[in-house]
Write a structure and sequence with these properties.
The structure is a homodimer. The two termini of chain A are about 40 Å apart. Chain A has about 180 residues and is of the alpha/beta class. The first copy, chain A, has helices at about 5-10, 15-20, 35-45, 60-70, 70-75, 105-110, 125-135, 165-180; strands spanning about 55-60, 80-85, 95, 100, 115-120, 140-145, 160. Chain A is built from eight helices and seven strands. Chain A folds into two domains: about 5-45, no CATH class; about 55-165, NAD(P)-binding Rossmann-like Domain (Rossmann fold). In chain A, α1 packs across α2. Chain A is about 45% helix and about 20% strand. The interface between A and B is large, with 45 and 45 residues. Chain B binds a DNA duplex (30 and 30 nucleotides) through α2.
Chain lengths: ~180, ~180
DNA sequence: CTTACTTTGTGCATGTTGTCTCAACGATGT
DNA sequence: ACATCGTTGAGACAACATGCACAAAGTAAG
């Protein structure tokens, strides 16, 4: 596969593809292109997705459920090993093979099950506290759905997903294009 | 509120705040700073979020449900005026005040209800077809949760949300920091 | 009115990112 | 063996974003 083909596939330019890849090493053969299978494998290793990760889900609401049932998660190596919620009615009930735990036992469960990643699917006002506790418990990274900027040490990466902001970005783009016309 | 305060709030620098705002006009007063309320209002207008948008939800699965029930949506002016699904068992049943429609009447409903934005919460293999039909029906923008790159004309903005990629980005960052140490 | 103080908006320097171009290199065919 | 073709990897260059510094402008106080 040539950089040209890869570029078409990824909506970019051939030069960009080559330059990006060259940051990590030399994967292609001149005159031939890149061997797709090998390249994939190398990239998986580089990105750290050539293994499975142990994930805890905090928040057993609608978003939590959607994530938990999302098949692509498990198939890409993200194993949900714990679910937490603060609602006493939910604690003890089970989703699939996981029973929902109280936040009272957060630290204990996190350590016992060797959780590496935490997904925060809880309201904004509870997110910071849980995030801090997760960092304290030695979590490696946080995927945050709450609409606030978490205050955590720089060593702990945070990825934010803000659904309303995605819609607002759309609104802005639409407005822009209408004005251009 | 000074640019300094705004910067602290938004995790950036005062100069950055001023420069970004200056792209859109002159909002502050020298010696005084920015008047928060006025600034918010101006930005809302600039971003096109000073009005409400009519949204159709395609896909009445877990993710669709999570979005539909997400209170921040409605409160920010995104009104869900239609829900579509291909599952015959779901068609006709209701969520809240919306009854789920068949994709057979997609074009008709889209026009009747004046849908402006479409949210695709369906599997990847169905997403392209619905996207094309939505464009044909004159939609203004698409929020896409399916893990594929939609092929649509440049006039129609698309925002992609790929949850697995977010986790993979986390994995990469974690790997990077571990190597640095 | 004048002076001291605060804060914006912008020109300038610097660093980062994307694009273009081309020599180096491997494969293929004569 | 040799020339030709296709493609990479890297250096040069242009575009863009970021950070700094300061004049302009407004406030407040004597």
């Amino acid at each position: 596969m040539s950089s040209e083909e890869l570029a078409a596939w990824g909506q970019t330019t051939a030069a960009q593809v080559r330059k990006d890849l060259s940051h990590f090493g030399s994967f292609g053969k001149r005159g031939l292109g890149y061997q797709a299978g090998e390249l994939c494998e190398s990239l998986r290793t580089l990105l750290g997705i050539d293994r499975s990760w142990k994930v805890a889900l905090v928040g057993a609401g609608r978003i939590g459920l959607a994530l938990y049932e999302y098949p692509a998660f498990r198939s890409r190596g993200y194993d949900c090993v714990a679910i937490f919620d603060s609602d006493p009615e939910k604690i003890g009930t089970a989703w699939g093979d996981q029973s929902i735990c109280s936040l009272d036992v957060f630290e204990k469960v996190m350590e016992e099950r060797g959780v590496e990643l935490v997904i925060l699917a809880i309201p904004a006002d509870a997110a910071q506290e849980v995030a801090s506790r997760a960092v304290e418990a030695g979590v490696n990274g946080i995927l945050n759905f709450a609409p606030i900027r978490l205050n955590v040490p720089a060593e702990v990466p945070v990825e934010d997903v803000n659904l309303v902001m995605e819609l607002e970005a759309l609104s802005f783009q639409i407005k822009q294009r209408k004005q251009d016309v």
